[in-house]
Predict the 3D structure of the following.
Amino acid sequence: MKILLDNDLNELQQLMLDLNEPKFRAKQLYDSLLLGQNVDENTTLPKLLKEKLSDYIWQPIKIYKTYEGKDAVKFLYKLNDNNIIEGIVMFHKYGNTLCVSTQVGCRMGCKFCASTLDGLLRNLTCGEILGQVVAVNKYLGGNIADRKITNIVLMGSGEPLDNYDNVLKFLKMVTDKNSFTFSKRNISLSTCGLADKIDKLADDFAGIVLTISLHSSTQSKRQEIMPIAYKYDLTTLINSVKNYAIKSGRRVVFEYTLIDGVNDSIEDAKNLSKLTKGLMCHINLIPLNFVKERNLQTSKNIYNFEKQLKNMGCSVTVRNSMGSEIDGACGQLRRKHLAEENNE
Ligand code: SAH
């Protein structure tokens, strides 16, 4: 079955013409889809057209379970093929940030991450990525003009740049004035460092905030915890980051998860400061969320590490782990759910 939300307004207009329907029906359909309506909730389209669309999926994302924390709500979504993905919305003073997934599972193999434990199951389509925004906006009582999500981060399960075409189309659709009109600066894309795709993004869609999961500032250590570093070494990665910063005019964010005894020494802080010197950037230090299957602990040295970096002139903050009491780290909730299902 085809997903209607995989189509932008132009494509829906073409679909209407193919179905011998007037073009204006496309906008009515698009609005309805973006409001999170299913065919039976739609009141604007004629019955005959709805029948012509009976082979299509209206909403590709169904909220399956919710977990409410004090400053966040975590979601398990069910896809049409019964795969499960997860998401989280975090309530900040400045607005609500939705973290979206881009793949079911992940094939990047980072040693501390839960999303990658089963490998990649499949890519999400652009409609399935957009559908997460639609579903949560509806859940929070928003609509298109008055949306309840102000920021989007592509930081859920999956590697966004490993699903490049769908992610790019999603970015174009979600920023489109016929849709939710997100501004680019309110969208962050987090990548483990596919340098060639960062270069491509700099040409195709610069302006969104690029976030690099760095986690180590030396090549050999980075290889140990992030296999992607074998393919794109630090020098190549940093060159692509510089290029992106120039083309987008925005500072880049480095994510650095502090793991006890692995990447949290004073030497590591010095290397990190050296690596990022002269780059328009900010460093986010993240306490490691404990993942049962991984034998790694969070660092006891987080605030000292931050102080070292500050003393060396870096722009740095420690990110509080919102939602960690409800398994906010990517991939953890899905795994827990699957394990519970298997025990039932
Ligand atoms: N593949 C992308 C996006 C998904 S991961 C990327 O690598 O950036 C989103 C962020 O969560 C990344 O910075 C990732 O390194 C981090 N992360 C993964 N597992 C974590 C854990 N157990 N504790 C803390 N951060 C984690």
